[in-house]
């Protein structure tokens, strides 16, 4: 994960949430994002894939200045730039 530091990433977790933001730190138990969009997929009719692609195309709609994501919930982390259209 350290090669993704200070870059915009997508974090998929084992819940109906998706996180998009700048990865600023990685700890043993948490991953920290700044200027992050924390999105609950239950609040929209879109899929995770469509929401993430929309974030790539239109930009991150930050709703948190800083967020800590529990590493045990992380399924995957990828660069936002690596999202395929």
Q: Which features would summarize this protein structure in a list?
A:
globular, 85 residues, 13% helix, mainly beta, five-stranded antiparallel sheet, single chain, SH3 type barrels, 1 helix
Layout of helices and strands, plus pairs?
Blueprint: E1 8-13, E2 17-26, E3 30-40, H1 48-58, E4 64-70, E5 74-79
Antiparallel strand pairs: 1-2, 1-5, 2-3, 3-4
Protein described:
The protein has 85 residues and is mostly beta strands. It has a single domain (2-80), classed as SH3 type barrels (Roll). It is built from one helix and five strands, in the order E-E-E-H-E-E. Strand 2 (17-26) and strand 3 form a beta hairpin. The chain is globular.
Measured distance between first and last alpha carbons? 23 Å
Instruction: Return the CATH topology.
Output: SH3 type barrels
User: What is the number of domains?
Assistant: 1
Series of H and E elements: EEEHEE
Q: How is the largest sheet built, in terms of strand order?
A: 4-3-2-1-5
* Total E-strand runs: 5
């Amino acid at each position: 994960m350290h090669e993704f530091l200070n870059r915009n990433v997508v974090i998929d977790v084992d819940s109906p949430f998706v996180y998009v933001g700048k990865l600023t730190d990685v700890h043993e138990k948490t991953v920290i994002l700044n200027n992050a969009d924390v999105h609950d997929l239950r609040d929209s009719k879109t899929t995770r894939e469509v929401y993430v692609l929309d974030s790539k195309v239109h930009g991150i709609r930050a709703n948190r200045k800083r967020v800590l994501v529990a590493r045990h919930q992380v399924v995957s982390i990828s660069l936002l730039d690596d999202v395929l259209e």
